[in-house]
Amino acid sequence: MKQTISVKTLMGIFLVPLICSCVDNQRDLFEEPGKLSKDEYFDFDMNQSLTIDVDYGFKNEYAVLFEIYDQIPVEVNSETGSSVKKSIEPIYRATTDKYGKFNEEGVSIPSAVSEVWLSSDYLGAASPVKIAIGADKRISFNQDAYIQSLLAKSPALSRGITTNEHKYLDDWTLLPGVDWDNNGRPNNLSAEKNIPPASVLYNIKSIFNNKDGNNITKNHPEFFDGNMISDIPIIKDTEVSLVFVNSTAGWYNTVGYYTYPTNETPTVDKIKKIVAFPNASPVYKSAGIGALVCGDEVKLKYWNEEKNQFEDKFPAGVTIGWCLQGMGFNNKPKDGYAQGDIVAGMGTRYSTTDLNEAGKDGVKRQRTVSLREEPSNQIVAIGFEDNIDLDYCDAIFYIHIAEKNAIDEGVIPPLPVDPEGPPTNEDNYTVRSGTLLFEDLWPEQGDYDMNDVMIRYTSKVYKSILTNRVYKIVDEYTPFHRGGYLANGFGYQLHNISNSDVSKITIESPSYAQKSQYMSGDRESGQSHPTILLFDDMLIFNGKEEADRKYTVTIQVNDVSEKTVLPPYNPFIFVESDKTRGKEVHLVKYPPTDKANLSLLGTGKDVSRPDEELYYVSVDLMPFALNMPVVDFPIPEEGVRIDESYPQFATWVKSNGKQSTKWYMYPKK
């Protein structure tokens, strides 16, 4: 670190080009301006404030936990064809009200983000959905309108026999008058969506949720002991419907059913496979085309072999089985087939395990799991496995039995009750991460290499499910680079809330690190706002591995707005802490604490105007601290100004953050 001073002719800030002449091998970013108004000073904030407006359009009470990502959060597994979630953190997370609605202003996300992906693993929620951030700084999503827009893109049913002239396999049968469009959406869907109570959806989600590699086969091995029966024995005449819930499959599968006398063993050559859903893919399928949304219902019909006709009710004494044609739906013209045809694909999978072909190991695989919802016994959840990953999420349906006590409940095991049920407070949190950079020669001119103090942070802000108000914050700070030679301490202040808003603070420090000499309790005394000092000198970390430098601070807060506790809050270093506490360096336009030496403001290169609440701005319009929205920001080269290390930095500043928002991704080659 070295200190240099360069003075240039006073000229208008936005009228002159970037100066490239050198003074002591340094240059100012802009010509030194005359006195600017408070708003004319750039705040160097790399975040934008948005309004989020989400409406999933549920008619029944159903709260949904959703997430917003800056990249698509799923990818298709090339081996299994299933969509799997990436191991990335969302940039925002929240819970809707009990009717699937959410509206919040002042949500902060990185400025470089221009489009987001709305995601939720809650059944019935379209996911993932790509949304452009509007010019009005809004993220808006209305599920009903979104689904209608997708369905409108699907070619209309036209010629009537199939009659849309879609080919289908000889060993499959169609229900009377059934046809489908090129995306596989059938024309015999019920007029209204049939969405079960929220408790049922929570239970289905819990059982069939494939999270962190823990799927149903690992969580419930009792369903895979060789005794599972997934076929549905009917003991009283009843109508039966099949209702789509979800699919994570990469394949385009066709799903149907068959029946056989309950007291007989079915064989492939005796059953009649009947198409229910030509393309069992959600309309918002992450890659490719889909056809269905949660609640889409098809009324099944019983094929009466003796009378050679379909009937509305399934009689007592028959059992319903389920079948899935792997890759059965042809999603684009190929091999002589048109889009929308049903093809052999990877073959048929059956709920009757004995009908399935044996694998290389000679074992016939169980392809479905059926679970009966208690106490009604009128809903049976069924999950299909189309290939080899055995998560049984490739097609999830539920069977709706019109008559009570119409199925043999002693055969189908009960659907386990989700122990958590609706989302909990511990599920509802937002993670913010980044890197803090500080120059320590303030208020004099620094070398602006921004590496005197570098600290990584990750903060989890926990919110109440019912109110989305914050009740707990967990901050992790890791000092990882000391480029300055002064004794620099670090702290942060929650400057938008009061001490009375905080009920408890717990600090976990490295075992070797002494507590700040300026803080006796769980926060610094004499401060109007909660202020925490973590250490007094970066020197204590010399020779320590980065993993051994982490501080974890848990703050219990009393139901505050998320907008008032945006990480990293108001971070600062206090310079020459071996001599004084009051020489604070903050982010541009952030206020000093009550312990700061205010006489330093407006001296040297600093042109703060405390009477206007304008702080930590410099005459040459360079920052003394930056909050970077990335945790892996590389250590800047010593003595090289940041606008030289990153050529787009100047454009970003001169445009007031409107251009080159990703400047930090393009270092000088």
Automatic annotation (TrEMBL):
Residues 314-400 form the DUF4114 domain. It comes from the Bacteria. It holds the Pfam family DUF4114. Residues 468-664 form the DUF4842 domain. PROSITE patterns: PROKAR_LIPOPROTEIN (PS51257). This is LruC domain-containing protein. It comes from Bacteroides faecium.
